[in-house]
Amino acid sequence: MSEITLQDIIQPENLVYEKSKLLTDKRFHYCPGCGHGTVHRIIAEVIEELGIDEETIGIAPVGCAVMAYDYFDVDFQEAAHGRAPALATGIKRVWPNKVVFTYQGDGDLAAIGTAETIHACNRGENITMIFVNNGIYGMTGGQMAPTTLEGMKTATTPYGRKPQWEDGTPNNGFPLQITKLVAQLPGTRFVTRQAVYDAAKVRNCKKAIKKAFQNQMENKNGVNFVEIVSNCNSNWKMSAVDANKWLQENMLPVYPLGDIKDNFELINK
User: Fold this and answer.
1) Which one-letter DSSP state was computed for residue 142?
2) Helix 199-217 and helix 36-50, axial crossing angle in degrees, nearest 10
3) Domains in the chain and their CATH numbers?
4) Which burial class, exposed, middle or buried, applies to 11 when counting CB atoms under 10 A from its CB (0-12, 13-18, 19+)?
5) Residue-wise pLDDT tens digits, 78-98
6) Per-residue pLDDT tens for 150-161?
7) Rounded Cα gap, residues 128 and 226, in angstroms
C-alpha cells in the first residue's frame, strides 16, 4: 500500500476552507485574537463572491486600520484621521458605478471623524461604512474612546470612565451611541450592529456586509452602515478568550446586536 501524501489529502472534495484570493500574503499586523483579521476575511470573501474586485475602492484611515490596503487585492486609498467618509464621498461622486467603502475604528469614526460621519450619513451618500467598535483607542495606547463603557478602565481613565462627578458636573461623558444616532438620519438606508466572536456571529456579519454592498451595487441611495462590536484584548489587558467573554457580558448590553434600520425604516426605535 502506497504512502498517502499531503497532496493526496489536499483535493477539492476535501476542502473545508479556502483563503480568499483577494487577501494578499502580507502578514496581519493585528494582535493575535483581534477581531480585525476576521472582519478583513469577511470583506474579502464578500467582494470575491459578488465578483466586484475590479469595481471596489476601500478607504483606510489612521488607527489600527491604517494598513488595511496591504491586505486586500483591491484598490485602496488612505485618508487622514477621521476623514474617510469625506474621501469616500468624493470618490463615489466621481465614479458613481464603483462600490466604495470605508473601514474605520471607533476613535476614527466616532471621535475625530464625527462631523464627516454625521454629514455623509445626513447627505445620504451611496457608500458603505464599516465601523469596528472595540470601545478603546487600539493603536495609540489604549486611551478612552467615545464608545468606552461607563466604569471601563483605559490609559486615560485608569479608575474607570466616570460620566459625571458626584455633584452632577460633567467629567468623561457617556458612551456615544453613534450607530443609533446615524440611524435617525434620513440619509441612512441600512444600519446594523454585528459581531465576530463566534461562527454564528461571523455568518450574520458576512450577510450584513454583503447586503450593504448589494444595496450600493443596486444604486439604492443612502448610506449602508455596519457596526461590528469587537474586542481589543491587548488594551483591555486580557487574553483573547477572556476578552470575547467580557465583550458578551459588558459590551453587548450597551451595544446590542441586530438590524436597527432597513430601507429607510427604523426597526429598533
Assistant:
1) S
2) 50
3) 29-266 (3.40.50.970)
4) exposed
5) 999 999 999 999 999 999 999
6) 999 999 999 999
7) 8
pLDDT of residue 5: 77
- Whose cell is 469616500? That residue is 88
Q: Which residue has the cell 456579519?
A: 205
Predicted TM-score of the model (pTM)? 0.93
The CA distance from 269 to 262, in Å, is 12
Which one-letter amino acid corresponds to residue 50? L
- Amino acid at site 254: V
Looking at the DSSP bridge assignments, the partners of residue 136 are: 144
The model's confidence at residue 73, banded by pLDDT at 50, 70 and 90, is: very high
Q: Which one-letter amino acid corresponds to residue 132?
A: V
Place of cell 475625530: 112
DSSP of 56-91: EEEEE-SSGGGGGGGTBSSEEEE--TT-HHHHHHHH
Length of the chain: 269
